[in-house]
Amino acid sequence: MQKLTCALLVDDDQATNYLNSLLLKRLNVTDKLLVALNGQEALDLLLLHCQEAVVECPVLILLDVKMPVMDGFAFLEAYDKLPIKQRNAIIIVMLTTSLHPQDVDRVQRLNIAGFLNKPLTEAKINDVLKNHFDRHLPEA
Amino acid sequence: MSTPSLTAADLARENEELRYQLEEAHELIHAIRTGAVDALAVQGSEGPRIFTLQGADQGYRTLIEQMSEGALLLSNDGTVLYANAGLASLLGRNLSEVIGSTFDSFIPLPFRDYWAGLVLKGWAGKSKGELPLRTEAGPLIPFSVSTNVLTFNDNDVLAVIVTDLSAQREITAIEAQVAEQNRIISRKNEEIQRQEAARQEVERAAAEAHRMLEGIPHIAWTTNPQGRITYLNRRWYDYTGHDNHTPLDEQWLLHLHPADAEGTNIHLAHSLSTGDAFEMEFRFRNQAGAYRWMLGRALPSRNATGEIMQWIGTSTDIHEHRLALERIDLAQKQLRDNNAQLTRVNVDLDNFIYTASHDLKAPISNIEGLLDALLVELPAETVQQDPVQPILGLMQDSVNRFKRTIEQLTDVSKLQKEHGRPTEPIDVGTVVHDVRLDLEPLIHSNAAELEIALEALTVLFSQKNLRSVVFNLLSNALKYRSPQRPPRISLRTWTEEGFVVLEVEDNGLGLDAASKHKLFGMFQRFHDHVEGSGIGLYMVKKMVENAGGHLIVRSELGTGTSFLVYFPR
Which reaction does it catalyse (chain B) (predicted)? Predict the structure, then answer.
């Protein structure tokens, strides 16, 4: 399988980031992996790397909802106004715990590729690759 | 009488004789009038005729002369033989013009026949009538006349008395006025009598009211229709202390709490102007100087025609009652506060359950993930070693239990958001059959006997929740079996007034009375040897109550338990 150039994990929980990094590395999904602890850090990374189509600009963002400083919803609002050229090349998938009906409603109206219930698993990553990148993990 | 052939001397002589006769007549008349003579001779066509006032006496003559009525004597040919001064004056003529004249000449033509009739009747005896006479000045004056035949020296004359009626007419008018005045006076008298009767009625009613009001154990009072106090009973003076200096009408205001004065006046004014019953709570100061709450009430007392005669009122001491009410109000306010607080706590709890189930999910799945990662990192032989292997096993068990609890909490929080009643009838038999299949291993391993008798075939409920209810009750009946006997479980349904009832009865461990109250609490477990989170019955209760039903538990320790679920129809 052809690896993704770069993926970005946005979550304030270090353990989640550690486990998700571990999983993505084990599955050989991406060449480069960036980690941001909240929405603001993620925005800064995008501003830094996504002015041009460079390898450091993530093509997949796995975004947590509840975070300090700037949460997932606020990040998406700010992202819409971000002056970057590579917006169309970036896939955003929200990672949530079991959702409050009100939040489900909110997420469904957002301009994102989809959302996944935590925890992240091999099967879920495979779904994302198939749906958005037209590739799949090698059969075990 | 004389002839033209008479000489001047004859004429002079004759003239002299006539003058003599005239003088003689004057003297005679004077003499008759003054009573100097009693008889007179009148020269008629057949020679002089002598009239004598036979037996006439000076007194009568004076009376006749002086009376204001007219009096005259008529000869049978209608000549006035005598007339009094009264008649002359009534006719406005000299007496000399009247005496010797024909009376007919004073009678207006239209009345001559009438007069002739009266005269004719008069000669026959007596007559009476009314007719006008012509006066010197011309106007006719109404008179009444009465005639009577008198005899003078064997000669009959007609005596006529003439009375001026115009004066009588005036009197009649005056009498009419007097009568009218009398009527007015009599009407006024009647009015005064009526008012007096009304006043007496009011006084009687007031006196009656006062007598009765003395006997009642409340302060009582009456006012007049204008609202002025007319009476206060003895209770008032017992309460306020005796005060004979303050006028009756000012007593109550003197003792009324100043803060209640305005409201009382407004209420009172309203009642007085409309006749509506008066009712108000106010405070009166007693003789010790303490204000006590009173309930003042008054009704108008009306007479037979509906007029308000007086107001009768009472003041009842409600001080203790009112204080008790205030205490109840306070207690109710505290209850409301407590309820509001409990409602807040409940909302917080709901939110907590949701948040807990939500927020605990990530860390526990992380722990599980990290545990897996650790297993990958540890050398295989270490993992197999004692005590590492049992520790890892216990850790995995704990993680699993943690995850299960969170799942159940999630179910609970979902359940709390369910609203409205399902309207689709669910087939109970199908649900029971499915659950029985799921529990078959447990039924088989415990050699349990399950008896099913469905009288009611459907309930209005959600299919998923009915499954949960049946599953929980049946699995509980199996789990809490008695070690002393093989489990015997019976599941029955039937219809009752307004409900479909589902009963699950077992012969298991049973519960004591104290435990029954806590049975439906979240995470309640009464038997720690049994697997379970203790959340099942809580869920069952919630589901049934959300659908408008309820649960009843009958249980005896050591004998068994029976759950009755009431589904509304």
Answer: ATP + protein L-histidine = ADP + protein N-phospho-L-histidine
